[in-house]
Specification:
The structure holds four protein chains of four kinds. Chain A has 14 helices and seven strands. Chain A is an alpha+beta fold. Among the domains of chain A are: 70 residues, no CATH class; 85 residues, no CATH class. In chain A, the strands form two sheets. In chain A, strands 1, 2, 3, 4 and 5 form a five-stranded antiparallel sheet that branches. A two-stranded antiparallel ribbon of chain A has the order 6-7. Chain C has a domain of 90 residues. Classes of the chains: A alpha+beta, B alpha/beta, C mainly alpha, D alpha/beta. The interface between B and C is large, with 51 and 55 residues.
Chain lengths: 442, 302, 233, 422
């Protein structure tokens, strides 16, 4: 590949940057002698059992939903009556064979259901041991959590003091303690090579982009190429998983999709209609892709026409309602402002005489009025500036000029407001470089 | 007639003029220093909440405890640094107030953003909250404002399952939520299109009285959202400044004991901001001085 | 006919339908359907994009154009990401349906896809965005020169807002007492005034203009006055 | 008798496990209360249960309203609806279907309301409501009058919008017709548009390329469409000057449209042979991937003229600063208010908001399109007029609050504002 010939002063710049970096790093390490780019994950071990629900008399499968809820969340989701309170029409769906799902064996809700018989264990299927890994983005937090876990375990490992407790009270507490201890022991926090490596990669890529500020260079070109390739693929994947699968494939071949990709997919009320409706976008898409064919590429204009037409229609009403009309309405307000002031003695006396309560007087609010008038002038003059039929000469020209002034103030303000956001972004990246990667800052 | 500039010794003026044409890479270096040094020095400043932050806080306080609120994460990692602080504070606020939270995203990467906040705030400070009952993560849906239009008619029109692939009909929290109108409050934390503006256009204008709308925005968005506050948007948080103020309000009322820094990111980031802003102000001044000097060279300011 | 008139008719028809649908609750579901269609269309259109991406880069490589190696890098990263993403490599099984591999969740960094997202894509995009911090500075330095009234207003406002945005503004103007006629000079008050009086009105007018522009453009398209969008027609 | 009543509840409810539970508990409650009168008392039944149509919808939905006599002792509410004939045809003893079982917050206030959806519009719906007591026992059911959801064909609340849409449309159409009849279509000069030819020409002289960026949104954004139409004109000029025009796009569909536009521009310029698809490419949907490519490309290719026409976000300043650093003529046009400041500050020419939409029409030079621009002005006149009049009336109202004139004009002003949705 052709690396650009770097001019000497550039080489100087490069060297000085690298030297600066190394010096800064070593200084930072002198104060925070902790390893670079360390990442932690918390691992929770769960024992899961395969269960299937016993079919209920009307074929509704509330247990399935309840169990699914339990699999995703702790028991309380069942304890609260809401889980059971599904609208009836949702429970009318009749599955072909009883649904089989893996559930957390230690979940009391599941245990209850196993007792009740709404769920039953699938025979001769061994229990599976699961590791649920959740990355901890902040290393300080990781340490804190580690410490907390140790303290917890320590506390729980001490047996309950039996004094002043009846037998069963004591047993209850002991049981609770053992349960809690089990939970604590199931959770551990370990350092993750995968994520540590990731931090290194991310840091190098970050530096690659920043190097563009010095000049265009091979390092940047490489990073740029990676970014383009990965992001293009990423967006195609997003479209595939979050649109094509649920909104197209799921309609065209629901059973296949449910079997392969979306087991949780709810059965449609009218599969045939969904299928037919899904054919239309499919047809449009094929027309669009027809461009790849040697002949008849013009057909691709038809879907374009649909897209442009529909969204032109949508935008027309939406923008007139939410911007045109709403903004006009917001602009219509009195150009004179008053502030309420307590009624004076005379008024109060008069009111008391009449046996009523004195209404508060009001004072002319100069600032408010001025603001209102300025606001009015602003809106009008800027609108005048936008008039296309009128050449910017004479009175119109002068008014439009005032309009331009308002525009400039508007833009200046927007610019000023933006700086903070932009700086924040850089701060975020620096926090990553200095904190997550080099570990010389919090 | 000689302009006053002529009194300036030519050497200095030449310097000033050259300053005006300085290689922009020196400016870049200055920015890097202005951000990096105070950050490493951990410079902190107090924050005084302004009207918009207070309005936001009040909006969430005013709705009855246990209301269902919709938080739409309409941003991606590119704006994370700016919007994460307010997202964290808002989730902590809603959870502490006892509201039930529905998370969704109009930006594809918004889901990951929401997940991050759920892990670092909701699950961390509120371990008692149960997924499906106290909160639910609907995830991302393509379609920009189209999704909002769908939600305005019916939830299941837009989402058939939640992010975990669980059917909407099986989620207790959503059992009685028919459309976006059934939320007491909708907050869009947005970095652009689609975002708070689309929520105003397609949800709020469709049913203005149904719910309160809050817009958490980046600085650049704020200017075009300001006209919507407070009539169409009851609350508004602008960039890290707004987040820092809001953080102050939230943590005053609902303080957290361990690792409070997660609800202090905004305030933490205001220190480097100060220096950076001063730098830019200095740059503007320098630029103009050198321009005047240059005019002086060319003989008088026109 | 097929290339010119019919697309025009399709455009107008679909436009009018959508306009009417907005006024009738009965037809509101139509607009929703159409929105859903577009998303699918856009999703499938990625085939075009991918095709073009491959074509361009392969051409660069085969013809050994300068920088062809970078094209190769693009292709490799593209292909790799696509494969792991479609196959959900290392995805965390769905607790309820662990035996259905594709139902797994690949957002966490345990899956290849999630890892690439977390440690390649998001740092890259975030950094690219963060470059703006530098560009904002250089733009302010270069463009904010007081050449005429307009530019003076532009940079003056930016100047005040910049001060008011941070503690510096308060520090400089806190000596001004509250409740006096001149206390509007306090930085935070000035900022409020600029934002609520000047910027709000300016923005309002801009929005009204944009709304009209959008509406008129939509009309031009729907009525077939502006056909350049369907250039073939 | 009590037991019988309980049995009746049980059978009449659809057999969800919830209903079964309800049946068991209530049955138990009844048995005990039958045996020993001092058991958990049945909570007071709901009062004035009534159905109400959800206004301005496509039907299928009804409000259920009821009052809870004693919220403090109520844990929730069960709502059941009478099964439709079709449902009874399927299952004869399916009389009532539980449609909602709401928690405490549904009965927290005395006046409560709940929305029922997916109802039949043809057949009147009947519901009954039962309060759940603190201990989970059900009160007696209270039935509502039957009501069928009504379908709204035209939503009255959007009448003002309809009116405005019609006015704007007529204004635009009217001017188009007028233009055809020969009315003047003179439009004020827009500097940015007059600079287009100059910029392309300069690129040709310097033998450098022209870069056109159609924004980062898809074809469903009107701005992108406007950008593409401008591209058509730029491409035509480029074809005439025989300058090389590069159009990297952020969306596949935009790439397709851009190719259409450029190709037909070459045809129009009579140079179909000079058109090459290779200059119009899809890069990536990722905003910043796209920007990374553009920044690199600009510093390497050094285009002499850069056009940014479409929907732009954060990338605006990146592009403008890079373009400036390579000394290109930059012409921007966008309707993203948030990005205008950066384009205005860093570009040579900027089309501000509405100007950008006018541009495509302006550049086309067709009488029809120029006419439609004048139509926009009518809309602005409407805006200016209503704002001025409304403000004036409200001001008078505010100044003379006690006089008839004042209150009258204040009232009219408010009416105008409400018309626009304020």
């Amino acid at each position: 590949m052709s690396a650009p010939a770097t001019k000497p002063n550039d080489r100087l710049l490069w060297v000085s940057l690298v030297v600066l970096g190394l010096v800064g790093l070593s200084v930072g390490k002198f104060f925070r002698p902790e390893p670079i780019a360390e990442a932690y994950v918390s691992v929770t071990t769960e024992v899961r059992t395969l269960v299937e629900e016993a079919p209920t008399n009307d074929g509704s499968t509330p247990a399935a939903s309840a169990a699914a809820a339990a699999a995703a969340a702790p028991a309380t989701s069942l304890a609260s009556g809401e889980a059971a309170g599904q609208p009836a029409d949702n429970t009318k769906t009749q599955p072909a064979q009883p649904k089989r799902i893996w559930v957390d064996a230690d979940d009391p809700a599941i245990e209850r259901q196993l007792k009740e018989g709404t769920l039953k264990r699938v025979p001769d299927v061994a229990q599976a041991v699961w590791d649920v890994r959740t990355p901890i983005d902040n290393r300080a937090t990781a340490r804190a959590q580690m410490a907390a876990l140790e303290k917890e375990a320590e506390k729980l490992s001490a047996p309950t003091d039996p004094t002043g407790l009846t037998k069963e009270q004591f047993d209850q507490r002991e049981a609770a303690r053992m349960a809690a201890l089990k939970v604590v022991e199931e959770k551990r926090i370990v350092s993750s090579t995968r994520d540590s490596l990731g931090i290194w990669v991310a840091a190098l890529l970050t530096l690659g982009i920043l190097s563009f500020l010095v000049r265009d260079n091979p390092f940047y070109k490489v990073v740029e190429s990676i970014l383009i390739g990965v992001s293009a693929a990423y967006w195609m994947l997003v479209a595939f998983w979050s649109t094509l699968v649920p909104d197209l494939f799921a309609k065209l071949a629901p059973d296949l999709v449910r079997a392969t990709m979306l087991p949780g997919l709810a059965p449609s009320k009218d599969p045939t209609q969904d299928f037919l409706l899904a054919l239309i976008p499919l047809g449009l898409a094929i027309m669009l892709l027809w461009r790849l064919m040697p002949k008849g590429g013009w057909i691709a204009v038809w879907p374009l026409a649909v897209v442009i037409g529909t969204f032109a229609g949508m935008r027309l009403t939406a923008t007139i309602e939410a911007d045109f009309m709403a903004q006009i309405a917001a602009a219509i307000k009195p150009a004179a402002a008053f502030t309420a002031v307590p009624p004076d003695e005379a008024a109060i006396a008069a009111a008391q005489a009449a046996g009523t309560v004195a209404s508060p007087g009001r004072a002319f609010d100069f600032g408010g009025t001025l603001a209102a008038i300025l606001g009015l002038i602003g809106v009008i003059t800027v609108l005048i500036y936008f008039f296309f039929s009128l050449e910017h000469k004479g009175v119109v020209g002068k008014t439009a000029r005032v309009g331009v002034w308002f525009l400039m103030i508007t833009f200046g303000a927007a610019f000023g407001l933006t700086v903070m956001g932009r700086m924040t972004l850089l701060i975020g990246r620096f926090e990553f470089l200095f904190g997550d990667w080099l570990n010389v800052a919090k | 007639m000689q302009p006053r500039k002529e009194q300036l010794p030519p050497g200095i003026r030449g310097l000033l003029v050259r300053l005006g044409r300085i290689d922009r890479r020196w400016i870049y270096l200055a920015v890097a220093v202005a951000i990096g040094v105070p950050m490493l020095a951990e410079l902190r400043l107090p924050e005084v909440p302004e009207k918009k932050a207070r309005a936001t806080f009040e909006a969430i306080e005013s709705i009855p405890e246990g209301s269902i609120v919709l938080l739409s994460f309409d941003y991606d990692p590119a704006s994370e640094a700016e919007l994460e602080p307010m997202a964290n504070a808002m989730v902590h606020h809603c959870a502490s107030r006892g509201h039930r939270i529905v998370f969704m995203a109009l930006w594809p990467l918004g889901k990951q953003m929401a997940d991050k906040t759920i892990d670092s705030v909701l699950k961390y400070y509120h371990p008692d909250k149960v997924e499906g009952v106290d909160y639910v993560q609907l995830g991302f849906k393509t379609g920009n404002e189209g999704v909002i239009k769908l939600l305005a008619n019916s939830i299941d029109g837009a989402y058939t399952t939640d992010a975990a692939g669980k059917a909407i009909s099986e989620i207790p929290l959503l059992a009685n939520v028919r459309s976006v109108g059934d939320f007491k409050l909708v907050a869009s934390i947005s970095a652009g299109y689609p975002g708070a503006q689309q929520w105003v256009q397609y949800a709020d204008s469709a049913m203005p009285e149904a719910f309160k709308l809050i817009g958490g925005t980046t600085g650049v968005q704020s200017s075009q959202l300001l006209p919507y506050f407070p009539t169409q948007m009851e609350g508004m948080l602008i960039a890290v400044k707004g987040a820092a103020e809001y953080e102050t309000l939230v943590t005053e009322k609902y303080p957290v004991t361990e690792s409070p820094e997660r609800l202090g990111i905004g305030r933490e980031r205001m220190g480097p901001q100060l220096v950076a802003h001063l730098l830019i102000i200095a740059l503007i001044v320098l630029g103009n001085i050198s321009m005047l000097a240059a005019r002086g060279l060319k003989g008088g300011a026109r | 006919m097929l290339q010119r008139t019919i697309p025009m008719l399709i455009l107008s028809a679909s436009g009018l339908i959508l306009i009417l649908a907005y006024f009738s609750p009965v037809t509101v579901v139509w607009s929703d359907t159409v929105v859903a269609w577009f998303n699918i269309l856009a999703g499938v259109a990625f085939v075009l994009g991918a095709g073009n991406l491959l074509a361009v880069n392969l051409e660069k490589i085969s013809s050994r154009r300068p920088g062809w190696a970078y094209a190769a890098i693009t292709l490799v990263s593209f292909g790799a990401m696509l494969v792991v993403g479609l196959g959900k490599w290392g995805a965390v099984p769905n607790p309820a349906y662990p035996d259905v591999h594709l139902a797994g969740d690949q957002d966490s960094t345990q899956s290849a896809y999630g890892w690439v997202y977390e440690y390649v894509l998001s740092p890259l995009t975030a950094t690219m965005f963060a470059m703006l911090a530098f560009y904002v500075a250089s733009a302010a330095f270069r463009a904010f020169r007081a050449k005429n009234i307009e530019s003076i207003l532009l940079l003056g406002t930016a100047f005040i807002i910049l001060l008011a945005q941070v503690a510096a503004g308060a520090f400089l103007t806190n000596w001004i007492p509250e409740g006096e006629w001149y206390s509007f000079l306090r930085a935070e008050r000035l900022k409020e005034i600029i934002l609520n009086v000047f910027q709000t009105s300016g923005m309002r007018a801009i929005l009204i203009g944009i709304a009209l522009g959008t509406a008129a453009t939509s009309l031009r398209l729907i009525l077939g006055i502006d056909r350049s969008a369907l250039s073939k027609g | 008798m009590a037991l019988v009543f309980a049995m009746w509840i049980g059978t009449s409810v659809v057999m969800t496990d919830a209903a079964v539970a309800a049946w068991v508990t209530s049955a138990a409650a009844w048995v005990t209360s039958a045996a020993a009168v001092v058991a958990a008392p049945m909570p007071p039944a709901a009062e004035n249960v009534l159905l109400e149509d959800v206004p301005e919808d496509a039907g299928g939905a009804l409000f259920v309203r009821w009052t809870t006599p004693d919220p403090s002792s109520s844990a929730g509410v069960v709502i059941e609806r009478r099964s439709t004939d079709a449902e009874r045809a399927k299952d004869p003893n399916l009389l009532w279907i539980e449609v909602a079982r709401l928690g405490r917050d549904a009965v927290a206030m005395q006046q409560s309301v709940h929305v029922l959806s997916e109802l039949s519009n043809a057949e009147p719906t009947r519901v009954r409501v039962s309060i759940i007591g603190a201990d989970g026992e059900l009160s007696e059911f209270v039935e509502s009058e039957p009501l069928a959801p009504s379908v709204t064909i035209f939503s009255i609340s959007r009448l003002p919008l309809f009116f405005v849409v019609v006015v704007v449309s007529i204004a635009v159409l009217g001017w188009v017709v007028a233009a055809r009849m020969g009315a003047s279509t003179r439009i004020r000069r827009i500097a940015a548009l007059e600079a287009v030819d100059e910029a392309v020409g300069r690129a040709t002289e310097m033998g450098r390329t022209v870069l056109f960026v159609p924004g980062i949104q898809d074809m469903n954004d009107i701005q992108t469409i406007a950008g593409i139409t401008v591209l058509g004109r730029v491409a035509k000029t480029a074809a005439e000057y025989d300058a090389r025009l590069e159009v990297p796009t952020c969306r596949s569909i935009v790439m397709t449209a851009a190719r259409e536009a450029v190709q037909s521009a070459h045809l129009a310029a009579g140079r179909p042979e000079t058109y090459s698809e290779g200059n119009i490419n899809y890069i990536t949907d990722e905003q910043f991937g796209y920007v990374a490519y553009l920044s690199g490309q600009m510093t390497r290719e050094k285009p002499a003229a850069c056009f940014y026409m479409g929907a732009f976000y954060a990338e605006s300043l990146v592009l403008a600063e890079n373009g400036n650093s390579i000394g290109a003529i930059q012409i921007a046009g966008t309707a993203e208010p948030s990005q205008l400041p950066f384009f205005v500050a860093a570009c040579d020419y900027t089309l501000i908001g509405e100007e950008f939409f006018a541009a495509s029409a302006y550049l086309s030079g067709e009488r029809d399109q120029l006419g439609s621009i004048k139509g926009q002005d009518v809309g602005k006149a409407l805006a200016v007029g209503s704002i001025l009049v409304g403000t004036m009336l409200l001001t008078v109202g505010a100044l003379l609050p006690d006089s008839v004139v004042g209150s009258a004009s204040g009232y009219i002003g408010t009416v105008i504002r409400t018309f626009f949705g304020g």
